[in-house]
Request: fold
Amino acid sequence: MTQPAQTQPADQNRIRIFDTTLRDGEQSPGVALNHAQKLEIAHSLARMGVDVIEAGFPIASAGDLEGVSRIAREVRGPIIAGLARANKADIEAAAKAVEAAEKPRIHTFIATSPIHMAKKLQLEPDAVVERAVQAVKMARSFVDDVEFSAEDATRSETAFLIRIFQAAVEAGATTINIPDTVGYTTPEEIRALFSEIRAALPAHVILSSHCHDDLGMAVANSIAAAEGGARQIECTINGIGERAGNASLEEIVMAFHTRRDHYGFETGIRTRELYRASRLVSRLSGMPVQPNKAIVGDNAFAHESGIHQDGVIKARETYEIMNAELVGREAAVLVMGKHSGRAAFRKALHDLGYEDLPDDKVQYLFGRFKDLADRKGQIYSDDLRALVESRADVPQTFTLEGFQITSGMNMTPVAFVRLQTPDGAVDATSHGDGPVDAAYGAISKITGLNPELETYRIQAVTKGDDALGEVSITARYGEKLLSGTGVATDIVEASARAWVRVMNMIVAGMGSERREGEFAPGRI
Ligand SMILES: CC(=O)SCCNC(=O)CCNC(=O)[C@H](O)C(C)(C)COP(=O)(O)OP(=O)(O)OC[C@H]1O[C@@H](n2cnc3c(N)ncnc32)[C@H](O)[C@@H]1OP(=O)(O)O
Ligand SMILES: CC(C)C(=O)C(=O)O
Reply:
């Protein structure tokens, strides 16, 4: 193993971040970004402070060439690189694409593993070295900054790698990339490989890693490569890329940032841009981020279990190793569910404006909350409001007696509703944009109350064809925010029940003043 990073001179500890979201990331099956989308991502990467943007593979298509050219023309700050195989046409295309860049780079590569050379390239090792040398020389005739990669390096013979890298450096390569093309290596192996190659090349040459995630080790391997001497790491936003993807940029950056005490490395990344970039790439690529993904997943800063929530309420650091704000996210989220405890429940009620509930009331509501959580999984703000406000003593001024709806394609939905009121049964008819809207109109006609519907959510609370649907709504009436729920196998009936409940609460003078809590919308 090499010496610990902390003991190296300070300028030796700067890791360059080479983002390949627009090249290897775009190689994710099903992803195709247009020019405008690529440009938007490139601007976001530049804002974030990446050192290199690999903007595409210009020979791949006229569109890719133009996409890289636009980024080269319009994005300032990072080096703009174009990928090229070790041949004339690819290198000319890459050179043309990056020529307008403030800092252009040509990245040329050829495979060096026995299997790739024999089966894919069908070239003898000597011929591969010769092709590499010619490619680097040609690239250098266009630009001063040339990166050379030995594809499938981690399945190549180390002696051959050293030979081809020395030849590439001699021919003018300034960065040498050692890719784990098929995600095969391990942290120990790659650390040792980088150390050996570092010792064999001149100090001015930057070593680079490019790890794939086939065994889920891309980030660990990239970090180990840095320990072995890599000072450039190739990675992508959200870890997207060919097959299982590449090393995830946000995870590497935050590992170095959070464990600077251990690694001693730093990057030039403005970490507050990470989450925004992740959302952008997810939206434009159409690749959702898994909820439990480190740093940028929905649950990365969410706490559901009571013991954790209690700890986080007392001191965030009990269960958080970094602040959500540091990566551009909102403060930690307490998700209310069946594992939540009283501390989180009290805080959630407090944040919703129910500050002065007596202790015995909170205890009672907590029991009901656990029952509900057992049935539903996640509990939202309006579920909690409904829980607090669904006291058995809500006077039933109005009750739903029956309804009939006429609705269909190219017809205006009409609802006939009958409510029992203090004056006896009253009927009304109304039309609306949909069957629920029509029913709500009819109920409002009968009660004479017209609150404004703010949110409407429906979910199945049981499984199967005859599943019970639960409708949860919030409505504003003057300053008051009211929540109602209704359960039925018929979703219009569930919706009507929720609306009638809101009417009864208005008549009883119930509801809360809305307050903005520190928790994210939809979650407590
Ligand atoms: C590990 C990586 O991620 S490498 C980057 C992978 N990315 C891509 O392939 C995306 C873009 N690719 C493409 O659009 C196309 O594959 C192109 C335009 C590059 C080439 O298309 P085609 O000319 O139709 O060739 P095709 O893709 O079928 O085969 C690849 C050819 O390149 C050769 N080749 C592969 N790598 C290299 C290299 N580094 N240097 C020189 N030649 C190479 C192969 O041996 C094969 O040659 P052959 O046709 O003589 O057998
Ligand atoms: C072109 C190289 C760097 C590559 O993408 C790989 O080997 O995975």
Observations:
- Confidence is low (pLDDT under 50) at residues 1-10, 515-524.
- The pocket of acetyl coenzyme *A (ligand 1) is lined by residues 24, 27, 57, 59-60, 85-87, 109-110, 120-121, 151, 181, 242 (CB under 6 Å).
- The chain has 17 helices and 17 strands.
